[in-house]
Amino acid sequence: MRKNIALYFLNDFLGVLGMGVALFWSAGRIDWLAGWAAVAVMSVLQPLVGVTILLFQPDLLVERLFPPQGAKKWDRAILSFIRLAQLARYILAGLDQRYGWTGGFPPAAQLSAMAGCFLGYGLLAWALASNNFFSQVVRIQSERGQVVESGGPYRFVRHPAYSGMILFELAMPILLASWWSLAAGGLCAFLWFLRTVFEDRTLQAELAGYGDYASRVRHRLLPGIW
Fold this sequence. Notes:
Blueprint lengths: L1 H26 L5 H24 L3 H6 L7 H27 L7 H24 L29 H16 L3 H28 L3 H7 L10
Helix pairs in contact: 1-2, 1-4, 2-5, 4-7, 5-6, 6-7
């Protein structure tokens, strides 16, 4: 167990390190306040998810570290594109900083975006704490006796974690003060939306009881809208 915990947080550390390299290498400088703010935010948010797992869903640690076979092919493709778009977001933000494509940016918008990043990850953590089957990949966990989870934020929308991630993907480029980066963030948000559509169809077709749950909780991402 300790080895898996260490591996999980090592992965988080390497992810934040890779983000920092993408930002500051493309910017060509390290005296960039927004870049450091983004790294600081992720240095808090990434461990937050790990701590949430340890406190509320310790059985999920291995599932999230080493997902078994059975993930949908479309899901692996979408996740690959999301990771590429996230990398592009940081590289574009750095290049924007280097060449001044965006120009002046309202500090108030950046502060609001920072709050949006925390809110988005907070929603993700709440969803994770409320769902015993919160895997990193879309698959029906028959060996774990998967059932429909309807507590916590799942009382309001069917995919609250994706709501949080879409908010985060749109907020991070604004924190970095880059309209070009926001284009990549918008692509990330669209891919999370696409994953929501496909995952919801999969759950309705393959998970017992999900159809009844969907009839009670009618909206996927935004209460009263969709």
